[in-house]
Amino acid sequence: MSKTASLLLLLPNLIIIYLLFYNMQFFTGKKQFYGVSIKKDYIDIKEFKNLDKRFKSLNTLGFIIIILSSLILIYKFEKVAFASSFPILMYITYNFFIYVNTHNKVKLLKHKLLSTETKVDFEISTKSVVDVTFLNERNTILKKFKFIYLIPNFILFIFCLFAMTKYNNISNSIPIHWSLFGIADNFIEKSISNVSLIIGSLFLINIVISVLGFNSIKSRIKIDTENITESRLESLKYLNKIGFTFLVLLISIFIMSVNIIASIIFNLNLNTIVSILSTLLMFISSIYLIIIFIKSPNLKSTSSFSPDDDEKYWIWGSIYNNPNDPSFMVQKKFGIGWTINLATSLGKVFFIITGALLIWAVFITFQTLFI
């Protein structure tokens, strides 16, 4: 891949990440401020607004540094493959650390104001609602998508088994990176472990997306305490949108996985049309998921109280750990979508799998540094 093409592929990703983190508080629920539960009436206090400005300034500074570092890696050191992923990993890691720092400062400021200002009341409403009708209808939606999500995973599993039987046909160098036009430009040595790792990782990604999609539908919905009937209909429509959008995302990743595996076992370049189609589907479905999450019924200031609203079960406002809550996924306190409940068995498994995938991604990234 040429230096300019690499930069053109990298920049949109960095810009999207920058804009997401810059506007993350805007996308968060009305009862949360950088992972801390605060009534929306108090978020406009000067001290809190200053912390918001500080986070955005640090985010912008990090973005500029990462862009400059990427230019140096690509044009001075000619580490094109390394620069295609390392800056993204570094920028996400950097943003996580400045978020944790901001979260701690917000939490400290909240407790300080509570102890010094007698008229300040940050605590959110603890009114809860259990809608049995909604739960029954949600179960019907769950059964439908559970079956639908199994279909592409079953097909991919069969194809992965077929791919392993073709091990002897695979060339001695396995492609792990392709150019914009589907031409392999980065390789690792052929071995049973490397082939199994690549194919297994692709299958695992599909499983993870399916689990996320299913549990996104299954996750707790907070009914509006002021309009239960309308909120129920809105929430059911919301769950169906999530289910179908995750299906499109799953299909796009399924198509991409088959394309990659086929290119490995048949020693071919990636099919350009298939690659563009799957990438486009993935991008559109991901953007639409973000839009759906932003409009989540759970983000209303009048949504009912649930166990995940209690701050004592949160680490840095981003990791949920409540052994008394059976929910696998809960609404994030900062950001878009859901996070896992680390206290559940499935949560622990998911945490380990995610960690393993991240380690693998970092390992592959640093391998490209020496090419």
Automatic annotation (TrEMBL):
Write down the superkingdom of origin. Bacteria
Keyword Repeat among UniProt keywords: no
Q: Name one Pfam family in it.
A: DUF5808
Report domain DUF5808 positions: 323-348
GO BP, one example?
A: response to toxic substance
Q: Which UniProt keywords apply?
A: Membrane, Transmembrane, Transmembrane helix
Q: Where are the transmembrane segments?
A: 6-24, 58-75, 81-100, 147-165, 195-217, 238-266, 272-294, 349-370
Question: InterPro entries, from UniProt?
Answer: DUF5808
Q: Which PANTHER family match?
A: IMMUNITY PROTEIN SDPI, MEMBRANE PROTEIN
Annotated protein name in UniProt: DUF5808 domain-containing protein
What species is given as this protein's source? Answer: Romboutsia maritimum
Organism lineage: Bacteria, Bacillati, Bacillota, Clostridia, Peptostreptococcales
